[in-house]
Design goal:
The structure is a single chain. The protein has helices spanning 12-20, 45-61, 115-128, and strands spanning 30-33, 36-39, 66-70, 86-90, 106-111, 133-138, 143-151, 154-161, 166-167, 177-178. It has 184 residues and is an alpha+beta fold. The strands form 3 sheets. A 6-stranded mixed sheet has the order 3-4-5-6-7-8. The protein has a two-stranded antiparallel sheet with strand order 1-2. Strand 7 and strand 8 form a beta hairpin.
Length: 184
């Protein structure tokens, strides 16, 4: 009887060393999630446009004390270095010159071909890391899923919003954003 193949999980440190050693091509869009290196799908124009729209909307409501990171890694734990489409982190970009942030107050994924991965793997990863708010922008259905209140490895609150609805990020609770403004 043959043994099933086992998955070799990489630590974040090993993953970063492989990158520094040039094992990965510079143009590869990769991220480490639970020890597995995933190739991120190519971006179509709607995906890119949605990132831009969400970036503009979030910049309008974020006050001083937060940095909005666009497709930059988060060093969440020893096995994960995901690259959310947008992440709001405490502080200033200069605070992260020697290391990636280890958490965020908001992570945002723009989801088209990666919907299942964003809804399942990333949701559980961000919740386990204690990220208080996770948004999934669904490009095809023009909806925003707002996940909050991480407990016991998952989010306890889930709302699905449409373009006519409004959302107030927890990091800027006194303001609101029209969901339509997050979409191109």
């Amino acid at each position: 009887m043959t043994q099933p193949a086992e998955i070799r999980r990489w630590t974040r440190r090993e993953y970063e060393r492989l990158g520094e050693a040039g094992v990965f091509r510079p143009d590869e869009r990769l991220e480490l999630v639970n020890g597995i290196v995933y190739q991120r799908p190519a971006q179509d124009s709607w995906h890119s446009g949605t990132i831009q729209a969400a970036q503009e909307a979030l910049r309008r409501v974020l006050t001083a004390g937060f940095d909005l990171r666009i497709q930059m890694p988060l060093a969440l734990d020893s096995l994960s270095e995901p690259v959310p489409d947008l992440a709001v982190v405490a502080g200033h970009w200069r605070d992260y010159l020697s290391a990636h942030p280890t958490t965020a107050v908001l992570a945002v994924e723009v989801s088209a071909s990666s919907a299942r991965f964003d809804r399942e793997e990333k949701r559980l990863l961000y919740a386990a890391a204690g990220i208080s708010e996770y948004w999934i922008l669904y490009v095809k259905t023009k909806q925003l899923e707002v996940l909050r209140d991480p407990q016991d490895g998952d989010y306890r609150s889930r709302k699905l919003l449409k373009p006519g609805d409004q959302v107030a990020p927890l990091a800027a609770s006194g303001s609101s954003i029209r969901v339509a403004d997050l979409l191109p």
